[in-house]
Amino acid sequence: MVAQTRHAGQPSPKRKLEFRDKLVGKGLSTDALLKKMKTLHTQLATLDQDHVDVASSPTARKELIHSSILLHKDRGVKAYAACCLADILRLYAPDAPYTQAELRDIFQFFFRQLSNGLKGSDATYFNEYFHLLESLSTVKSVVLVCDLPAADELMAEIFRDFFALVRRDISKKVELFMADILVALIDEAQSLPSEVMDTILAQFTDKNARIDQPAFRLAVSICNATADKLQRNVCQYFSDIISSHSEDEEYDDIRNAHDLIKALHRSCPGVLHSVIPLLDEELRADDVTIRTMATQVLGEMFADKAGGDLLRKYPTTWNVWIGRKSDKSVPIRLKLVESCRSLIANRPEAREAVEGLMKEKVLDPDEKVRAAACRVYSQLDYESALHHVSKAQLQAVADRGMDKKPSVRVEALNAVGKLYSLAYPEIEANDSSAITHFAWIPEEVLKITSTSPEVRNTVEQVIADHILPLPSGSSSSSTKGPEIDEAGWTDRLLCVMRYLSEKSIKALLALSGLKAVRPNIYQVYIDSCISYNGGIMDEDEELITRRLNASIQHLAVNFSDPHKTQEDLHGFAKLNENRLFKLAKTLLDPQTDLKTLVKTTNEFHRRLETSAPALLPTLTAFLRRASFRILNTSSIPSLLKRVGKAYGSTAGHLIQAAAHAKAMLTFMSKWCAGMYKGHVGELVKAIGGDERNVEVLEVAVQALSGLVKSEGAGVAPADKRMIGLKKFAMHESWRIAKFATRYLAFSKQKQEACARIAKAIAEEYASADSADIECVAARAAALAQLSQFAPEAFDKHSNVYMTFLVKKLLMTPQPPGSEDMDDGEEWFENDNVPELLRAKVQALKVCRYRCLAHADKGNALDLAAPVMKLYATLLEHNGSLPPQGKEGKQEGEGEREEDPKFASRLRLQAAASVLKLVTVQKFAEALQKKFLRVDGYDSGRGQDSCYNVRYEFLTKLLTLLQPRKIPPQYNIIPFLTVHDPETDIKTLASSYVESAKRRMPQALRVEHLELIFIRFLHLLAHHPDFSTAHEDLVDITKYVQFYLDLMASQDNVSLLHHLAMKAKTVRDGETHSENLYIMAELAQELIKKKAQEKSWTIQTYPGKVRLPADILRPLPSSDASKERTYLPEETRVWLEELAKSALPKEKKERKVPAKRKATSKSEGGPKRRRKRARSEAGDDEDDDRDDDDDVDGRSSEVEDDVDMDVDRNGRKRATSSPKAPTPRPKGTRASARNKAKQRRDTSPLTEPTDRGRVITQMQVLFLLSTLYQGFPLTYPLPLYFSLLSLPEPQSNPTYRALVWHA
């Protein structure tokens, strides 16, 4: 047996309370009582619950709850009494030695002491209060409250007191003790009083509730610690609110409850597990307001930090929430979309679902939802957009820049613009992810610039605010002004251009404000405002007022709200603040540098916002267009350095930056050379530098030539190095020679210098046996400048020049190379134009400039007649000249073998030269009969086989039509593009017409666009494809329909109908045929149909119209044509059917004449590259615009206004049943198109069902040449054409080469 000590297994002796003094009695002073209470507290605090004899303190235990103690006036007595009672409860735990009534009084006493005394660590008796609180927290004696009568009231009081108490400046430990006490009460309570829940949840509804607030922090601690217990109470709380207010029209309480749910989810989501199903049900509720609130609340809950757990635990609720994207209520879809911003940033696991939702919502039927969807992306930070939004989604947002609604356009373009601004530092640093994800944004923004004035305004704002903003630092208040990084600002422009297409670069340059004749319309407006003087004028009041009104009207057309713009511009003029006018003139000055621009812009905005804030948006847009914010005189040094850095470098980024810098400098030289006025020294230095650096030399020479041309010879420095320009006129580079000659033509010694150059070139030409001489293109380019700017020097040797240029250069064909015979290409890209072709093009310009230089002389027509004949011959022979001394080809000789790539450039230049000659009235009269005919339009390259020729011809035509430099009847040509196989040509023409309608005053619009309708009908009556066959008339109908779609309106429909009727009161002055009457009847029916569709009333036109006497003649008898009907019966029936339904946009495939077929890239024949024919710098077509300055001082901006982004989709047209053609009337000719159609109808290889296909010589030739590359042909070449009922193309170079090889 194991031995044990005496006391082994016996409990240790329990300690007894030694305090035996009386606490209650008469004559006991406060000090004495306080001393006794301290002693009692000290002894009780040292006793251990497990080793105390609780029976040793009956007297003290009873006396402590005496009313004289609990209600004592001294705070110290009550503080020690509370501590002693807390210790007694600790020692007696778990059974309290008091009755329930006594316990109620004790706990009320406890919390009353804490509320009144616990104010801070420096407060009196703080240690005692802290002891009391610690005891309640650790011993958990407070749970006794839950068993007391009326415990709910006491608990509510405790919670109220504690949340009031915790707002004081107390320590974190005290706060933790309070949380422990309240958590213990909640855990022990069988049910929580509603007052307790109200007190806890009230902490979350405070607007200032945040985690640094003690009361809010205490409530969060309690909720997180008792989440399982509180779930049911929280759910009941919200259920009561929703059910009690479900029938009310006011939703304030329900809205507050939803706000509370959001606050709870952010801090203590565990208490809401029973609430989520309630929200799920609300998403399905019939009440729109309830659904809206539930959608918003859940959206924010899914997006906050606890949203990931919510999404995983409640996938059904997530799917129902996502399903609200199809809700019929717009506010609900709006709330859903607005919630997606935080979801994109915080919930990467839900990216796929959110992106699918947003992809649908950017195309939502309601504009507010689309705008909100776009706005979401403007609120993202860079990292979120880069990692959580796909490029395809950003592109979908950018596509909304073409939305019909202004609010959507603004939000979409601002969104992508802001994202680009955030990403630019990374793009500049060549971060591949940023480049892939965001570098395309400027391209997408710029390509829609010309869509409409509204879109252009938004694009300008986005460019100015986000893509190319002015440098920051404008807020500096130093006396030296803000620090501006001019080089960095210019480098940003080049960085943006690095990822732009040629078309977008052109659009960007159009926004730069440089392309205008000075003074431009903005300067005219400011000068008019100064002269207007607020309406107080001493003289010329009517003239000044009229000038001001005209400038305002012209400006307002290009703004999104013309009416408001006119009011604001008038208001600015009436404001008459000279300081604002002075600031505006400074901003409009090309010599204003970047630093001054920033400073002046800020001052202008600040002053205008103070004096007339309502005018600020309009005047901001005005200055954005008028000032030099994209290209500035401060950009020139940086751009010159960029051009120079590429010399000898093989780095791709340096070469590309140099090319773009050169394009910018070239654009400045061409349109605003005055910018170089402060940089003459740098240009002279560049000219005197390394001559091997041709790029820098060329830029400098062009800049100086443009400067002396615009500012006069006085700006040229008297520097010895400028002598080098004389030798540069004979430089081997054609561009350097061209600009050096131009500089000398405007220099102080121009007569001597030009005479020397003219003599040197004449000597070279006189000694040359052929055009095969060195620098032939450079010499021709120099001659072009002499003929334009120094005609006296040119005329001294004109016979030598013209003999060489025409006989030895132009009339000497360039046969195609063996490698080019079968490729089907008809165009040289600008960088690949051979020197000989460039020389030929320059030779054609020499002829044109010579005519224009002598236009005001008496022998102008005699001098121009051979030139006009030369151009006409080139157009007639498809870019080739016939054999010398012969008007046509001899039998069996065929046309001269000019390389098709040469021929396309030559016929384009010939057509462009004709357009330039037409700007002179006497030349226009001589050319009109030949050129302004459908066959002239075809030979003028309107239906050229080469897309580049057609596009360039139309562009040059519109450039002259917009400033009205050529007669009004040339406005007919854009309406003849309706059947072009490439959609963008038709779109370009349509855009010009729409722009012209918008810009022109009514009188000009009538003269230039409406009165030409009868000329249009006359032109169609002489169309090569016109016949009385029904299917041909259907094709002709498309021309008239195209015109009416663009031009007809309620205001002019009576005039158009009147013109169509008047056509039957005259006769055709050329052929006396009845075709004009057929067109007149056809037009009348189409106008009636148009009026019926639009519900217009065709009234009798009240005015008198003078018909053009050059094409129409009076009838011998007034009733000769009015009574008779000329329109074929079948066509008349067809038009009646159209009156009952909309006119189909496409009837059948347009069949272009075989000889002049304009091949689409979608056809199976030779592929034509769709690349634009020119760039802003470096090709002779571009220089053509540079040389041909505005002769009447008007600005030519048509290319900026009508160049639009177009789709490339081909058109499909229904086919019509074959029908025998009606005999063609006398006086008309059978076109190549109709002849090909007749051959097709009789060909044994084609069936009647193939009427939509036309097999042409060129297609057969292409197929044969392709087949021959793989294996020999079985039969002789002529047999293939014979089987297809096609003539042999003996004059075609490819065919002759194929015959030779075969």
From TrEMBL:
Keyword Endoplasmic reticulum appears in the UniProt entry? no
- Which cellular compartments is it found in? Nucleus
Please verify whether the record's keywords include Cell division: yes
Q: Which domain of life is it from?
A: Eukaryota
Where mainly located?
nucleus
Checking Gene3D superfamilies in the record gives:
Leucine-rich Repeat Variant
Task: Output a single Gene Ontology CC term carried by this record.
Answer: chromatin
Provide ranges: composition bias, Acidic residues.
1178-1191
Q: Which GO terms describe its biological process?
A: cell division; DNA repair; mitotic sister chromatid cohesion
Transmembrane stretches, start-end: none
Q: Could you tell me which SUPFAM superfamilies the record lists for this protein? A: ARM repeat
User: Which spans does this entry mark as compositional bias, Basic and acidic residues?
Assistant: 886-902
* Key words of the record: Cell cycle, Cell division, Mitosis, Nucleus
**Disordered: annotated span:** 878-902, 1144-1251
Cited PANTHER family: ANDROGEN INDUCED INHIBITOR OF PROLIFERATION AS3 / PDS5-RELATED (PTHR12663), PRECOCIOUS DISSOCIATION OF SISTERS 5, ISOFORM A (PTHR12663:SF0)
Q: What is the name of this protein?
A: Cohesin-associated protein Pds5
Give the species: Coprinellus micaceus
